[in-house]
Amino acid sequence: GDLPVYVAEMQRFQGQLAIVAKTPRGSWDLYSLDPDSLAIAPLLQSRHAIARIWGDGQDLYFSVNADLGYQMYRFRGPDRRLEQLTIAHHATYGVSLGDRLAVVGVTAVGEELFSLPLSPQSALPLPTPIVSAGLDLEGRLDADALDKDLATILPHRFSPKNGGPGVFGEDKLELISYHLGYSDGFTVEAETPVLSPVSVRGELLPEGNLIQASWPFFRGVDQGLQVARAQMTYQWDDWTPGLAMTWRWLDTQLSHSLELGLREGYRVHSHVSHTIGDGTLGLRWDRSFVMDRLETRRGYGAVHLTDVTGDGVEGYLLHRLFPVRQGWWSPDIFFGDVFGEVYWGTQSFGDAGVYCGAELQLEAYMSGAVRV
Description:
Elements: E1 6-13, E2 16-22, E3 29-33, E4 40-44, E5 50-55, E6 59-66, E7 69-76, E8 81-84, E9 91-97, E10 100-107, E11 110-117, E12 123-125, H1 145-148, E13 157-158, E14 166-170, E15 177-182, E16 186-192, E17 199-204, E18 210-219, E19 224-235, E20 238-249, E21 252-261, E22 265-276, E23 279-296, E24 302-328, E25 333-347, E26 353-365, E27 369-371
Antiparallel strand pairs: 1-2, 2-3, 3-4, 5-6, 6-7, 7-8, 8-12, 9-10, 10-11, 13-14, 14-15, 15-16, 16-17, 17-18, 18-19, 19-20, 20-21, 21-22, 22-23, 23-24, 24-25, 25-26, 26-27
C-alpha cells in the first residue's frame, strides 16, 4: 500500500514497526507503523534529524545530529520516556548488550568501538527538554578530536567528475564533504548538511567562484509533484534566485526550473523523459536571456554572449546496449552497463543552428560514481 510519508529506516518495535520518516514539509521524525493497516502514529518529533535506529523489541536506540555532533538516545517503549545516553559529540551508533551500551564513536584516529554502563542519570518524560545524562564514554571521545588530527579529513577516495580526475574527502562527523578536481583548471567543491534541510555548497572554478544554498520545501509521496526546491546562487558578481520542480508518473518524468539573475538575465529550463524498456526518450527546452556571459552548449565550445535572448530544443534517445558488470577491489573500480545515445537539436543563438550527434557511455564506479 501507499504511505503518506517518506521512510528512511525501519525496526521492529512492540509488535509493530518503528520508522524514521518525514512528511512532505516535515523533518526526519520517529513514527510507529502498523504493518497490517498501514496506520502511522508519531512517537517522537524533534527539530534535529533522527537516524541510525536500533531496537530490542521494547526500546529504541538512535542518534541525533545536534550541536554539531552526534549523541545517543533511548526511547523507552512501555512508558514513552526519552533518555539521553551520551554527552560526547561523536557517538554515531549504539546497541544495548545486557546492562551495557556498545557505541561506535569518532576519535582523532577514526572510528572506534566503546562500551559503557547502560544507566543514564536522568530519564525525563516527554516533552520535557532533554538534559545531560552525565556519561562521557569513559573519557575516550574527545569533542576536539578533529582539531588534533587532520588525517580524518584528508582525501581518501578517487572520484573523477566533469570529465576530469579528482579526489573526494569528508570529516568523520559528515559535517563537510569536498571534492578536489581538474577540469579546464583546478576546481574545489565543498558541501555541508549542517543547516539541514538547507544544503550549502561552494565551488572554486576557473570561470568564476560559486556559492549556492538549496531548500527542498516540498517532497511528494504519490505520483505527481515529487519535489519543489528553492535556491539562491552567487556567481559572477550576481545573485540568482531559482525555483525547480519535478513531477513523476510511472515511467514519465517532467522537471521545470527558473533562474532569475539580478544582473545577468534569466533562464527557463524544461525536461521531459519517458522510459521505454531499456531506453529513455527525452526532450529538453531552454529559454535564456544573457546579458554578458560565457555559455556552453552540447557539442560546442564556450561562446561569449551579450544581450542575447534565445531558445534551445534538444531531443535524445538513450539505450542500454549491453551489461559489463565486472570490476576489481584493487584498484577500487567497477564497470556497469554500456549505453548508446543519439541526440539532435537546434539553438537560436551563438553559432549553433541545427546539430546532431551520438555518444557511447560507460558506467564506471570508483569509490563513488561517475559516468565516462
